[in-house]
Amino acid sequence: MTDSVERLKKRLERERKARLQAEELLETKSIELYNTNQRLLELTRNLEDEVRQRTEDLQQARDQALANAKAKSEFLANMSHELRTPLNGVLGMLYSLRNCDSVTQQKAIIKTAMDSSKLLITVINDILEFSKIESVGVELEQIDVDLRECVESIAHSFSVSARSKQLDLVTLIDPNTPRLFRADGFRIQQILSNFISNAIKFTDSGCIIVKVGYLGAQRVLITVKDTGIGIATEQVSRIFSAFNQADSSVTRKFGGTGLGLSICSGIAKAMGCEIRLDSKPGQGSEFSFLVKLKEVDTTSISQEIRQQESRKVIAVVSDNPLTVDVFKRLFESQSNVDMQFFETIASLKSLGFAVRSPEVVFVDFQGKVMAEIKKDESALDVPNTRVTRLLHYDQLGEAGVDDHLELLKPLRNQEIYDAVYQPQFLLKINGQDSRQVARFNNKQVLVVDDNLVNLQVAENLLKDFGLSVELAKNGQEAVDFIKTTQFDLVFLDVQMPVKDGITAAKELRFSGKSLEDLPIIAMTAHASREDRVKSLAAGMNDHITKPLDPAVIEKLLIHYFDVDHYETADSQVQEGSSASGLPNIDGFKLIEALERLSGNRQLLKKLLLNFCKMYESAGDTLQAKYDDGALNDVQALAHQIKGAGGNLGATEISAAAGALERALKNDEHDSLPSLLQQMSRCLDSLPKLNKAILDLTDTTSPARPAAEKAANVEPEQVIEMLSGIQKKLNLDYTESENLVASFCRLCKGSDFDALAQQVETLFADFEYEELENVISEFIETHS
Fold first, then answer.
1. Residue 729 and residue 738 in contact, taking contact as beta carbons nearer than 8 Å
2. Among 23, 157, 232, 746, which residue's Cβ finds the most Cβ atoms within 10 Å?
3. 462 with 553: CB under 8 angstroms?
């Protein structure tokens, strides 16, 4: 019994231990299973997170790709809009030009077309930079800007669009606004272009007012107000976001990208200001920005009026309050101006002479005035009074009276001032359109360029302003010349052999206190902002581009010099300077080149013949240098051709050379073969031009008169004159031409007549190297 119990106890003990072991094993396995499950759960969560993250990344990448595609589409659409606006102005003006015979009227049309063209060129030039705004922000340029001209010219470029909807477009410029500010004129015009374009788009009737208010302390308030559809308060914040407009119905009805105001907002912030909007649905909108600009020239048109000694009586005939407001703002606060306002010409004639008859009458060609003129064409006959008509571009030529001045709307303050105080700036002389050219006597100017054509064009243009001009062919010559001769201003090419313009400018600025204030102007074919910055950083005062524009040169000279007096351009045009007698060849704008040379047709012909001779085989030369890997030589030659061709009206050749130069500068080597072919094709037109000029010269040049036996001419006299020619040959074309003419007169009929004819021929053909050899050989033989 005891044994049985003992065995039972042992059995129970074994079973207990086995159960405990089983429980321990179960617990261990359970823990292992739990841990494994936890690890699986964690792995699952990690995988889910990774999948979720990748899904989000893919979604973001997809959204970014869609956003980029949309942005690109919106960018292209916006550029199309920006390009079409000024292009519409150009086309509208050219359409009006077809039916306009008066030279003065053509001038007014062309001025507006030029304003639109300049805006178009500006937009095109800045498209590439515009694409950088999102990535690197807005880059601002700080240059001297005529704010009045900046605003008025951009408004003029929209005159066609506004007139097509019968909208009044008016510019109201505070007459106390200083003439020059330090600013980025293009960015201001970019903002205004968008404001005015939107105002025209969203206004069906009424007016658009572009206003500039000068608040003092370098603060300028610029506003564009319309009478359009307006914007609801809750939608105001949306329109400054990219790609957004007030609502979808706006896009459907009016089109547009909604990108413009966002860009304007970014530009305004970069300028240190913000755009404000005041708008009510159905009552119109007013966009404005208050910008702080550094004043450069504080002279205002209001000051110019106050300085006039004579008292003026001015009458304005208009039933348009906006037109009246333009004149009130300009003249009403002036104590030396009496203003009279009339709604009709009849009221002017019946009441205007009660006290003192007006000297100048401005007649607004709209409303009641138009009705009067249609009823009686002689209504404008106002005795002893100078009448100035205020016209829209499409009214030019209507009810024309030849001796009346005409101002094109929107009116410009400067043109109104000229009409009152200096009408000779606007009058016709002998039935020919003319302008006043500033003359700067007793001023010495140095022009530095390695290209003979550019030197001769610049020399002729500057002498037309009464300047004394000296020439140098590279930066080293310029530095040496300036250290020994006192100059009032220097035009300095940037890219030259021996010493370039940048290096020369830096050397001059550090050479002594006496040259610190010498105005140095970069004169180059490089038009980018980066090139301008390099010029200014080198110590130059300004930067102008080729081909040279006489108006730009004149404006620059007026900035640096006091005007001695003004002369009519007609009195400066040389004999034989009419546009007729020039061949009409595709790819060449020879009339523009003729204007650049102040109408000197003979000089233009000589320069064109020289250009043909110098670059007729340039296509082969460029290709050979490219094949040899001499890319620097290719770039240098392309640069020469671009500058010389631009000045001589070879527009296609100049453009092709410019494209080739840019490709080399930007290391775009893949495009070089096609650009070289294009360059060669353009240069193929030179033989045709050369023949046309020679044929023209043969038919128009007077025959050399038969030689008459002259008095004896001594070899010493010949040597003296030939030495003078040799000294001036490559430096002063005009002086060389005069010396050659004097030499021919001296030798006429003498034993040296044949030599004189040889010298004359070689000079006319620009065979300067051979001419120098002939002169040197004669001097050596007869010394």
1. no
2. 157
3. yes
pLDDT tens digits, residue range 350-362?
765 545 678 788 8
pLDDT more than 90, % of the chain: 6
Q: Which residues 6+ apart lie within 8 Å of 132 measured at CB?
A: 139
Give the Cα separation of 628 and 652 in Å (integer).
26
Q: Assess contact for 357 and 373: CB atoms under 8 A.
A: no
Q: Does the structural domain 590-700 have CATH classification 3.40.50?
A: no
Please tell me the distance from the alpha carbon of residue 633 to that of residue 642, in angstroms, as a whole number: 14
Q: Which two tokens stand for residue 234?
A: 């809750």
Residue 558 pLDDT > 70, yes or no?
yes
Find the radius of gyration of the CA atoms of the chain: 37
Burial of 56 (0-12, 13-18, 19+ CB in 10 A): exposed
Q: In sequence order, what DSSP letters do the residues of 670-696 get, joined into one string?
A: GGHHHHHHHHHHHHTTHHHHHHHHHHH
Residue 437 tokens read as 């050219």
Q: How confident is the model at residue 220 (pLDDT cuts 50, 70, 90)?
A: very high
pLDDT at 161: 80
What span, in angstroms and rounded, lies between the C-alpha atoms of 649 and 585? 11
Beta-bridged to residue 93, according to DSSP, are: none
pTM of the model: 0.46
Phi, psi of 364 (to 5 degrees): -85, 115
- Provide the 3-class DSSP secondary structure of residue 186: helix
Torsion sign, CA atoms 472, 460, 608, 762: negative
Strand 312-317 to 360-364 pairing: parallel
Taking the C-alpha atoms of residue 356 and residue 350, their distance in angstroms, rounded to an integer, is 12
**Any residues with CB less than 8 A from the CB of 39 and at least 6 apart, and which?**
none
CATH code reported for the domain at 438-572: 3.40.50.2300
pLDDT in tens, 386-423: 777 777 766 655 545 455 677 888 888 888 888 888 76
Whose tokens are 């109201």? That residue is 172
Contact 257, 194 (CB under 8 A): no
- Report the b/e string of 679-705 with b at 16+ CB within 10 A: beebbebbeebbebbeeeeeeeeeeee
Which segments of 617-689 are extended strands (E)? none
**In whole angstroms, what is the distance from residue 259 CA to residue 71 CA?**
9
Q: How far apart are CA 735 and CA 383, in angstroms?
A: 51
Q: Within the chain, what is the greatest distance between any pair of CA atoms?
A: 177
Does residue 410 have a cis bond before it (omega within 30 degrees)?
Answer: yes
Nearest Cα neighbor of 116 from 2, 204, 18, 197 is 197
Is residue 476 a contact partner of residue 499, using CB atoms and an 8 Å limit? Answer: yes
Q: What's the one-letter identity of residue 743?
A: F
- 298 DSSP assignment: -
Question: Please, how many CA atoms are within 13 Å of residue 700, restricted to the half-sphere of its CB?
Answer: 15
The residue ranges of every structural domain in the chain are: 103-297, 312-434, 438-572, 590-700, 715-782
For tokens 């020369």, what's the residue?
A: 504
312-434 and 438-572, same CATH topology: yes
Q: Domain 103-297, what fold? A: Heat Shock Protein 90 (3.30.565)
Q: In terms of CATH, what superfamily is 312-434?
A: Response regulator (3.40.50.2300)
Angle of CA points 412, 544, 111, to nearest 5°: 30
Tell me the sheet residues that pair with 229: none
